[in-house]
Specification:
Blueprint lengths: L6 E7 H7 L15 H17 L3 E5 L8 H5 L12 H16 L4 E2 L6 H14 L2 E6 L13 E5 L4 E3 L1 H8 L3 H11 L14 H11 L2 H6 L6 H10 L3 H8 L22 H11 L5 H8 L9
Parallel strand pairs: 1-2, 1-4, 2-3, 4-5
Antiparallel strand pairs: 5-6
Helix pairs in contact: 1-2, 2-4, 2-13, 7-8, 7-11
């Protein structure tokens, strides 16, 4: 009897992994360009590829905040964030060039953020008998966890699944959305229920399971918290829309061809590494990231 082996898609939260690779000692080449994040990013990618052996590697990235549906829905969304350091932006551009020369597809859309792109691909993989591992330290992505969708946190170096989420927080992936709705997200300027932080939100969800059930039992909740919940009620629908990751892949007309390797430009790849003086990445490319055999482009 033939056994159908499921294909594995590795989704890289590109900006997240690159920015997290930036912190630490600088590595400045003779042209005065800091390349520490580029180097660390591709060492992380090598580690992921070698350990997980994915059939496909895709990059999901943000291309701006101003035109996303969340900003249109709620103007203060992420409006307080300061512009990124020009140094890391320069490295992000170089890293994206290197990844593109390796043939890794970048999937993005001005209306949606990388989280949404990863959510869309995760839904597609579920509906097409594939597995997906998302590499990111972004906890918002926990809501995407499913039987065949996992999160790998390079920071904690652990694979996060339903069991991990239950053991750590005693929540399901769908309850993770409820948690975010109740507490909001200050880093993104998303309003929650004032006076309800993570500890209080977890306690409420452990006792009542859902926001709907919490509000059905307001009379059982201590008066001070009850008033906070009543006052915050009007924000809940907006917050839910802001924190819920989009998974409808038809919104970007996603198809299987979008995760295929786009062909490698090997000479240009090594020329760019030489220009950046990233000699330590030569073996990363030769013995790992260039090992599988997509169509080569001369």
């Amino acid at each position: 009897m033939d056994i159908l082996l499921r294909k594995l898609v590795l989704g890289i939260d590109f900006n997240n992994i690159l920015f997290n690779s930036y912190y630490g000692d600088k590595l400045v080449n003779s042209n005065g360009i800091n390349v520490n994040a580029i180097r660390q990013f591709f060492f992380k990618l090598k580690s992921l590829k070698d350990s997980l052996e994915p059939d496909y590697i895709i990059m999901a990235n943000d291309i701006g905040r101003d035109k996303t549906f969340r900003r249109k829905l709620y103007k203060p969304y992420k409006a307080q964030r300061k512009p990124a350091d020009p140094d890391v932006i320069t490295q992000l551009r170089y890293a994206s060039q290197i990844a593109a020369l390796l043939g890794y597809p970048f999937i993005n859309n001005e209306l949606y953020e990388a989280d949404d792109i990863l959510g869309m691909i995760s839904r597609y993989t579920q509906e097409n008998d594939m597995d997906m591992i998302i590499a990111s330290s972004d906890k918002d992505l926990y809501q995407l966890i499913d039987d065949n969708v996992y999160i790998f946190s390079p920071r904690g170096k652990e694979l996060i699944d339903r069991g991990w989420l239950h053991d750590r927080y005693n929540l399901t992936p769908s309850q993770w959305i409820e948690l975010k709705v109740l507490q909001g997200d200050r880093s993104d300027n998303i309003p929650g229920v004032n006076g309800v932080g993570e500890a209080t939100a977890l306690k409420l969800l452990h006792e009542y399971n859902s926001i709907e059930n919490i509000y059905s039992h307001l009379n059982s909740i201590k008066p001070s918290l009850r008033e906070c919940l009543k006052t915050g009620y009007d924000n809940l629908n907006l917050t839910r829309e802001l924190v819920t990751i989009v998974t409808d892949y038809t919104k970007i007309e996603f198809s299987s061809s979008m995760i295929e390797n786009t062909g490698r430009y090997v000479k240009e790849l090594y020329d760019l590494l030489e220009e950046l003086e990233l000699h330590s990445l030569y073996n990363v490319m030769k013995y790992s990231l260039l090992l599988d055999k997509p169509p080569l482009v001369a």
